[in-house]
């Protein structure tokens, strides 16, 4: 079993940066692909970023809408995955969720594939 707890959300103005954290506990963290998703009101949950378990830093995947602005990283020693969000836009407003252990790494963008989820943290970007 894996427990995920997100933190770092808040209300910010457009153009600033924010870093989300996801602390994991339970089974061996480094074996899991970790992902970030977001869900805006009235919309489906969408993929944001994911990272695999490689000790060398991992393969990273990004949604086109955040590529170049967001960076996913992980610290296996701290059992934590991060999402650095730069140049935030109002359309980034959503509840951000951390997820772990998709069925296969190739399913990194499919929320249905993930086994474990955090409770979410709200990010609101004002214009």
Topology:
Blueprint: E1 2-7, E2 10-13, E3 18-26, E4 34-39, E5 46-51, E6 60-62, E7 70-75, E8 80-85, E9 94-102, E10 114-117, E11 121-126
Parallel strand pairs: 2-11
Antiparallel strand pairs: 1-3, 3-8, 4-5, 4-9, 5-6, 7-8, 9-10, 9-11
Secondary structure: helix percent: under 10%
Rounded to an integer in angstroms, the radius of gyration calculated over CA atoms is: 13 Å
- Shape assignment: globular
Structural class: mainly beta
Strand residue content: over 45%
Major sheet, described briefly? 7 strands, mixed
> Alpha-carbon distance between the termini?
40 Å
Number of DSSP helical runs:
0
Q: Mean pLDDT, rounded to whole units?
A: 92
Q: Give the topology string: H per helix, E per strand.
A: EEEEEEEEEEE
Low-confidence stretches: none
Characteristics of this structure?
127 residues; mainly beta; seven-stranded mixed sheet; four-stranded antiparallel sheet
Describe this structure in words.
The chain has strands at 2-7, 10-13, 18-26, 34-39, 46-51, 60-62, 70-75, 80-85, 94-102, 114-117, 121-126. With 127 residues, the chain is mostly beta strands. Strands 2, 4, 5, 6, 9, 10 and 11 form a 7-stranded mixed beta sheet that branches. It has a 4-stranded antiparallel beta sheet with strand order 1-3-8-7, with no helix packed on it. The N and C termini lie far apart (40 Å). The mean pLDDT is 92.
Report a brief summary of the structure.
The protein contains no helices and 11 strands. It has strands at 2-7, 10-13, 18-26, 34-39, 46-51, 60-62, 70-75, 80-85, 94-102, 114-117, 121-126.
